[in-house]
């Protein structure tokens, strides 16, 4: 449409609007979608993220929403399956007509949901998907977390410099884009730092028996085993590794996919002492983290994990972008999200870069017992990009 035509239409539209609704202000809710694994093998990912989002939402709406309009979040369950992710996002976009979509956690699911958002021109913000491909070639898709080339570097550096180990084995989930990508990055960096990969084994998420892979790993006598999978599988791998006689002196290491209160419950003693990289640690210092942990505990009676913190940050960054956007149309909102710079999140300062990713520090945590005897992550170190 030519500029003058658009102006003319806007004037007549305004006139019609004024006549019919007089001075009534639009107070209808602004709909935002969330697609998440609320059930299934990765259920705590979706549940924690949704709680984080809803805590942010409560604060946003208590402060008046956007120009008097409340924000409403509609959540659909993906069950941790890529196909369900596509269906959920299609429904959010075509039938609920959301202005933006939050999700997913697992990269393979964000790849599926992102395709739908791109097709319909609706902005998507992933709180926590770290595979580089999630945002590549998708102008509508951005994220508020770091990506796996960095995370792989972080774990490799930690094993080489902090633990001072030379020989590592890898056991990854060949069915998840996240796991495969993180394995590649870890191998690359660990080798470049002078370490040796002594074994590289694969499984498929949901497998119950890892003994063949673990027996092979044991025979190569690694000093550490990197398991870039999700928490249910990682917990089971730990149990079986110790049962097969791989000593607790050989730590298992993981990436953010280990982050769940279920990890310690599944892995028990077998996972104690192991390490993983993450986006935040609940016992980390800093005023924003402390305030968030208190508010979250008061609301949900739980200690927030990294997913909760990222869900909170994703919702806040989206809302901040809505306030700055020229309009809530897909293109305008996506542009405002992409301009996010120095937003002070619980998980660190968030600046969306030219690839629509965020560059932020990572933390390393260790699975330790607290005074009550419960196993959970304890902050060990921060690693800057
Ligand atoms: N980064 C993981 C992925 O991309 C998801 C994840 C993030 C899991 C943070 C736990 C915590 O698949």
Features:
single chain; 385 residues; alpha/beta; 14 strands; binds phenylalanine
Task: Explain what the structure shows.
This protein has about 375 residues and is of the alpha/beta class. Helix content is about 45%, strand content about 20%. It has twelve helices and 14 strands. The protein has helices at about 5-20, 45-60, 80-95, 105-120, 150-160, 175-190, 210-220, 230-245, 260-265, 285-300, 305-325, 330-340, and strands spanning about 30-35, 70-75, 100, 125, 140-145, 165-175, 195-205, 225, 250-255, 275-280, 345, 350, 360-370, 375-385. A hairpin with a 5-residue loop joins β13 (about 360-370) and β14.
Mean pLDDT: 94
Give the helix proportion (percent range). 40-55%
Largest sheet: 7 strands, mixed
Q: Poorly predicted ranges (pLDDT <50, ≥5 residues)?
A: 1-22
Strand order, sheet with most strands: 7-6-8-9-10-13-14
Our estimate of the beta-strand percent is 15-25%
* Oligomeric state of the chains present here: single chain
What is the 3D shape?
Answer: globular
* Order of H and E elements: HEHEHEHEEHEHEHEHEHEHHHEEEE
Helices, by number, come to 12
Number of strands: 14
Bound molecules: phenylalanine
Radius of gyration computed on alpha carbons: 22 Å
Briefly note the structural class of the backbone.
alpha/beta
Tell me the span between the first and last alpha carbons.
Answer: 45 Å
